[in-house]
Amino acid sequence: MSWFKKIFGKDTKENLDKGLEKSNRSFFDKIGRAVAGKSKVDDEVLDDLEEVLISSDVGVETTVKVIRRIEERVARDKFMNTSELDQILREEIMNLLAENKDSDSDFSLSENKKPYVIMVVGVNGVGKTTTIGKLAHQFKQQGKKVVLGAADTFRAAAVDQLVIWSERVGVPIIKQEMGSDPASVAFDTVQSAKAQNADVVLIDTAGRLHNKINLMNELSKIKRVMQKVIPDAPHEVLLVLDGSTGQNAFEQAKQFTAATEVTSLAITKLDGTAKGGVVIGISDQFKIPVKYIGVGEGINDLQPFNKYEFVDSFFKKG
Ligand SMILES: Nc1nc2c(ncn2[C@@H]2O[C@H](COP(=O)(O)OP(=O)(O)OP(=O)(O)O)[C@@H](O)[C@H]2O)c(=O)[nH]1
Ligand SMILES: [Mg+2]
Hints:
- By secondary structure, this protein is an alpha/beta fold.
- Helix content is 51%, strand content 13%.
- It contains 13 helices and eight strands.
- A hairpin with a 7-residue loop joins strand 7 and strand 8 (302-304).
- It is elongated.
- Bound molecules: guanosine-5'-triphosphate (GTP) and magnesium ion.
- Keywords: Cell membrane, Cytoplasm, GTP-binding, Hydrolase, Membrane, Nucleotide-binding, Receptor.
C-alpha cells in the first residue's frame, strides 16, 4: 500500500470517481447511442465504437489497438451481445495498459539522492505551480523536508503564487525578484536545500517564454547550473499536462519529450471535463510514466496515478 493511501484512505478512490464523473457519463452516453437498437456487435457497432473512443480523447493510435483487439474477440466468439460490450472494452483497455511496464507511482526518494530534485515543466496555465503546492503538501505529510524554488521569474504573480503555496503548506521557498535569472534561483535553491539537509526540492519553471527554443534553452541552463551543486540533478523532470485540453495535451507531451528529457508526467484538471480518456491514450502511447493526476484545485486533489483504479473509475456504471 502506498503512503498516499495510508494517509488519504478510501477518500482517494471516491475523489477519483467524482473527478471522472463527467468523462464517465459522456462515455456511457456515447456507448449507449452506438449500440441502441442492436443486440449483436457487428461491423457497424465497431465503427461506431471507434468513433466513441476517438471522441472520448483516447487518441487514434490507442483506439486502433483497442478496436483490433475487440475485432479479434468478435471473430473468435462469433456472437457477441452488445450488452457485454462495455465490459469487454474495459477488459481490453486494462489488458492494453497492463502491457506497459509498471512503474512505481511514487517518486523514489532515497538517502543517496538527497535532496531529490524535481524540476516541474510544462506550458503556461497547465497547473505546474498548483501541482508543486500539492506535492509539497504530500511530501511534508510523509515527514519529508521540502524546499521550493521559484524559478518562474517571468511573471511577478508567478513568484507570489508559489509564496502562497509555501505558506499554506508550511515549507521554505527560495526566490529572487521577477526578471532575475531562473537558473540562478534554481542554483540558490539546491544549494540552500543541501545546506539544510532537505529531502526534496521542487523547482517551478516558466511555461511562457518568447518562443519554444528559448524555453528549452532555459530549461537546459537550469539543469546545468543545478548540476554544479548536485551532479545528478534533476532526479525527475515532471511534465505537467492539462487533461481538459484533450488532444492538445498529447501534442504538448510529444513536443516536450522530443525537445527535453522528461522522466514523468502529471495530468491535471480531470475534474469537470469529459476529456479524461486522454489519460488512457497518454499512458498507452508514451514510454514515460504518468505519475500523478489532478482532480481539483484543493491541496488534497492530486493522486498518484494507478492505471487499474483509473480504468475502473472510468468504466464505473453510475
Ligand atoms: N479544476 C482543476 N483546476 C486545476 C487543477 N490543477 C490546477 N488547476 C488550476 O489551473 C489554474 C492554473 O494553474 P497554475 O498552477 O497556476 O498553472 P501553471 O502551469 O503554474 O501556470 P503558469 O505559471 O502561468 O505557467 C489555476 O487556477 C489552478 O487552480 C486541477 O487538477 N483541477
Ligand atoms: Mg505557475
